[in-house]
Automatic annotation (TrEMBL):
Organism this protein belongs to: Methylobacterium nodulans (strain LMG 21967 / CNCM I-2342 / ORS 2060)
GO molecular function (one): zinc ion binding
UniProt name for this protein: Cysteine--tRNA ligase
Cysteinyl-tRNA ligase anticodon binding domain residues: 411-452
UniProt gene name: cysS
GO terms (BP aspect): cysteinyl-tRNA aminoacylation
Entry's family note: Belongs to the class-I aminoacyl-tRNA synthetase family.
Domain tRNA synthetases class I catalytic: 18-332
Keywords from the named record: Aminoacyl-tRNA synthetase, ATP-binding, Cytoplasm, Ligase, Metal-binding, Nucleotide-binding, Protein biosynthesis, Zinc
Length: 460
């Protein structure tokens, strides 16, 4: 029996014991990126936090007993505008942006599908793209119309909010406040100001698909229906955990709940809703006008990924985080000290109980990091740090900085190593050898360690 995990549930506004629907297949969904521009450091926070939760769930229930879905939004007004501005296709833009995002995540120590999925086995980490789930969206829209929870108006399909008596239960916003916000998007064909778009006609040169509900003109989905359709496809009508940033509670997550519950007639969409807090930079809200807007790529150009990850996890995920230079400097010194302590330690020991118990208390990372600081046993430190996603590169922060100074593109090296790891897992030895040769041509030497990690150095 797994130790008791307690999580703060936004739906109930209380910290509750986590009881999965099926302990043999714990199911979790997290809202991922909209791929039109470089991700900023605020985008990195939920990815890191929920990567830690994924790691903890795998530790508690077993590596094959947790299914994690992190979506990609690749159809959106911002995507259309940016592709037109750059004069490239929408697919070219989204592929390029997603590849850059993946490279950043690898450097942050975030698990990727190729790290955990095994050939011939059910995938446990799925990264669905919205454009690959249009059929599921159309099916849900048609069911909602048939059930009287949505209607067609001027080639749009809209969700009929008043048809759901307890709409607003997740965000707990007063009706007049929700209506005030909804009036920003007033349209004459709406029955109620709160009604939101499920499907809309496409403009010239925009992505378009055959419309549902007998609408003749081609169109594209609204934003909210995407996550309902992707979570349904991969996790079912009701699942265990839905996660995302606090800014998504209303209207995005509220509307997801409405669509899914009214489509399937279920009392809940997800049993637990987790939301991380906002991020500020040196005490101020991040803003391009203030000149403190920082992308992940810019931060990773100056700091190793493990340092950035540690700076993120120093603050409890539900609290606002103040992103400062001082925090990065302290994190860098800590990472160096941990590597010096671990040295050439062999396989990790058992995860220390005190550290595990801190994480079981709603991912209390400040307490967990305090436990790591108190550890002087190398094997125990390695076990605890690796559970939290640290010490995965097998080199210190200073050594990582030295590699960066050599001119080798670290993100490319880590991507090729991840691809080689996937090829080896699939027993595709020819592809594994090809990737090793490609890395060697860059001056990179690999060492495959007994614990499954791969160490790399640059010839100098």
């Amino acid at each position: 029996m797994a130790p008791l995990l307690r999580l703060y549930n936004t739906l109930t506004r209380a910290k509750e014991p986590f009881a999965p629907i099926d302990a043999g297949n714990v199911r979790m969904y997290a809202c991922g990126p909209t791929v039109y521009d470089a991700a900023h450091i605020g985008n990195g926070r939920p990815i890191i936090v929920f990567d830690l939760l994924f790691r903890l769930l795998r530790h508690l229930y077993g590596e094959g007993a947790v299914t994690y879905v992190r979506n990609v939004t690749d159809v959106d007004d911002k995507i259309n505008a940016r592709a037109a501005e750059r004069g490239i296709s929408i697919r070219a833009l989204t592929d390029e942006t997603l590849a850059a995002f993946h490279a950043d995540l690898r450097r942050l120590g975030v698990l990727m599908p190729e790290d955990v999925n095994r050939a011939g086995q059910r995938p446990v980490f799925i990264e669905p793209r919205a454009t690959e789930h249009i059929r599921e969206m159309a099916m849900m829209i048609e069911r909602l119309v048939a059930a009287g929870h949505a209607y067609v108006a001027e080639e749009h399909v809209l969700f009929d909010v008043p048809s759901m008596p307890d709409y607003g239960a997740l965000s707990k916003r007063p009706l007049d406040e929700m209506e005030a916000g909804a009036r920003v998007d007033v349209a004459p064909y709406k029955r109620s100001p709160l009604d939101f778009v499920l499907w809309k006609p496409s403009k010239p040169n925009e992505p378009a698909w055959p419309s549902p509900c007998g609408i003749a003109a081609p169109g594209r989905p609204g934003w909210h229906i995407e996550c309902s359709a992707m979570s349904w496809k991969h996790l079912g009508e009701t699942f265990d955990i839905h996660a995302g940033g606090i800014d998504l509670v209303f209207p995005h997550h509220e509307n997801e709940v409405a669509q899914s519950r009214c489509c399937f007639g279920t009392p809940v969409m997800a049993n637990v809703w987790l939301h991380n807090g906002f991020l500020q930079v040196e005490g101020d809200k991040m803003s391009k006008s203030l000149g403190n807007f920082v992308t992940l790529r810019e931060v990773l150009a100056d700091w190793p990924g493990e340092v950035v990850r540690l700076a993120m996890l120093r603050t409890h995920y539900r609290q606002p985080i103040d992103w400062t230079l001082r925090a990065l400097e302290e994190a860098s010194r800590t990472i160096d000290r941990w590597y010096e302590t671990v040295g050439d330690t062999g396989p990790a020991a058992e995860v220390p109980a005190a550290l595990r118990d801190a994480l079981l208390d709603d991912l209390n990372t400040p307490s967990a990091l305090g436990e790591l600081h108190r550890l002087d046993d190398p094997a125990a430190l390695k076990a605890g740090a690796m559970l939290m996603g640290f010490l995965g590169s097998t080199r210190s922060a200073r050594a990582q900085a030295a590699v960066a100074a050599s001119g080798v593109d670290v993100a490319t090296v880590e991507r090729l190593i991840a691809e080689r790891k996937a090829a080896r897992a699939a027993r595709n030895w020819a592809e594994s050898d090809r990737l090793r040769d490609a890395l060697a041509a860059m001056g990179v030497t690999l060492k495959d360690n007994k614990d499954g990690t791969t160490t790399w150095t640059v010839e100098g």
